[in-house]
Amino acid sequence: xxxxxxxxxxxxxxxxxxxxxxxxxxxxxxxxxxxxxxxxxxxxxxxxxxxxxxxxxxxxxxxxxxxxxxxxxxxxxxxxxxxxxxxxxxxxxxxxxxxxxxxxxxxxxxxxxxxxxxxxxxxxxxxxxxxxxxxxxxxxxxxxxxxxxxxxxxxxxxxxxxxxxxxxxxxxxxxxxxxxxxxxxxxxxxxxxxx
Length: 195
Fold this sequence. Notes:
Elements: E1 9-12, E2 19-26, E3 37-46, E4 49-56, H1 65-71, H2 75-78, H3 84-95, E5 99-102, H4 105-118, E6 127-130, H5 131-138, H6 146-152, H7 163-183, E7 188-193
Parallel strand pairs: 2-5, 5-6
Antiparallel strand pairs: 1-7, 2-3, 3-4, 6-7
């Protein structure tokens, strides 16, 4: 689960670095009721270098049709994909010391945290920033849905509800948010802790 603490990491809005944008697709809305990850994507920006990680994930049970209709991931697509426990170390290694960036972090990170715990792996000293929270706190968008913010700021979204497509949209939205927060005189963001 996500824990908030005073152990923070400061991110400078003028030139944020060492960021890991993360998004998942799932078999449902509540990991505490058995919903699992079926896709995870991450994009790391560090020292001007971009690195990507993405994979489908076998959830170990049938994907409900109503979920497949949203993200277009079906049982046959994940039947030979790795289970989360098989990629858990890769995910932690990819994140490294980076600050995780999510849109609606409570959702994504509750799943990641639970599945890491079930895999016997701890993501130590991890910090995150929630672009949804920043949008609500510092902006007045008509809608804070990721795709709607992107449309408002002129970012073309060709594919929705696939993890890497949402990550790429999130990168554009986050850059807009950071740049405009800096213009408003907000030069730093305090990243929050999760375990």
